[in-house]
Amino acid sequence: MLCDDCGKNPATIKFTQIVNNKKTVLHLCRDCAEKRGLKEAISNVSFSLGDLFAGMTKEKSDKVEGEKAEILCPGCGHSFAEFQKIGKLGCGICYETFSSQLKDLLRRIHGSNQHVGKSPPQLTPKMELKREVRKLREDLRKAIESEEFEKAAELRDRIRELNKGS
Ligand SMILES: [Zn+2]
Ligand SMILES: [Zn+2]
């Protein structure tokens, strides 16, 4: 899906705005979203997507007015809401795109995330780290292929932790 504004870049953000019960949906690339001054919405969304998502599934009261920015997978153009509807990820990149939401989803399914804090020591040398990440990415790819989402979520988290430390 291409950006509604420039029509050139792939849309990576779905921005929904509800004003007076009228819903406007925009599919934008990051650049155009920023140009429209939606930068704040985007950065908010990346910090609180888990909350946002939890709120969405909890069937919020009837207060629908508001703005919502959803991240779209750059691979297949699906949003996480669409993934939920279909029950299946659109492509391998989805996993990277929606890792935090998936983690949240799995956590709520299982009541807790048993693998919190299983990150490797910070002192791991960089080379070592890169190799580890590469290996984890490979495992992640396999987990996605076999649709082992829970395993994939763990792997994704570990990759993230490792990247943070580098
Ligand atoms: Zn654009
Ligand atoms: Zn995708």
Any overview of this molecule?
The structure is a single chain. Helix content is 52%, strand content 12%. It is built from 7 helices and 3 strands, in the order ββααβααααα. The protein has a 3-stranded antiparallel sheet with strand order 2-1-3. β1 (13-19) and β2 form a beta hairpin. It is globular. The structure holds zinc ion (2 copies). The site of one zinc ion has 8 residues, from α4.
Low-confidence segments: 46-64
The mean pLDDT is: 75
Shape: globular
Which ligands accompany this protein? zinc ion
The major beta sheet can be summarized as:
3 strands, antiparallel
Sheet/helix structural class: alpha+beta
Q: Radius of gyration over alpha carbons?
A: 17 Å
Share of residues in helices: 40-55%
Q: Could you give a quick summary of the protein structure above?
A:
This protein is α+β, with helices and mostly antiparallel strands.
Topology, element by element:
Layout: E1 13-19, E2 22-28, H1 30-35, H2 39-57, E3 66-71, H3 80-86, H4 92-97, H5 99-110, H6 126-145, H7 149-165
Antiparallel strand pairs: 1-2, 1-3
Helix pairs in contact: 2-5, 5-7, 6-7
The structure holds zinc ion (ZN) (2 copies).
Please name the defining characteristics of this protein:
alpha+beta; 3-stranded antiparallel sheet; 7 helices; 166 residues; binds zinc ion
